[in-house]
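INFO batch 0412 | record 1 of 1 | parsing
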Amino acid sequence: MLLIISVNNLAAAQEYKKLRATIGLGVTNGILIYFEPSYRVKDNLAFAVRFEDGIHVTPQEGIYSVGSKSILGQYYLRTNSKKNHPFVGLGIGIFNASGFGGLLCDCEKTIQKQSFGFFPRLGYDNRHFTLSLDINLISSFRESTISMMPGSSVEPSYQYINTSYIGVRAGLTIGGGRRNKIQTYQ
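INFO prediction complete | emitting tokens
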């Protein structure tokens, strides 16, 4: 009997479903797309994996892509509301870059493929809608450039490129809502 009461109390202790997934779009100096499955450990604490890819455009670097695979934790500041759930979070991950090239470059460029980064996050959940602001701080990528102009030196030149960015994301969430209350009749 004591075991049944303990299991019942444990099941009732968490008001929100454990699993959820978010898919969405974002903006930065380009466009972002992301997928983020998560597991809610407690009502106010969730851990997630974020898969993201983005196309960025800058005058200095031209058009390039930065993708990431990250893990993150999210702490909900208020869980007693039926709709509104502000949160803060922190994530770390591996960022991949490709496609660097100045807009006016007659050269061959190669780029270091992976770099480590982390991101603090602020956000807001409202039922099946999530809005977040992530500040992605990425260690610089090393780029080597060899000029293809006739008569130029074959020696490569090196530069370090900062690809850190701020992303604003909006997504749709499936799962993770409040559990249905089971009515008991006596």
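INFO post-check: Residues 1-11 have pLDDT under 50 and may be disordered.
INFO record closed
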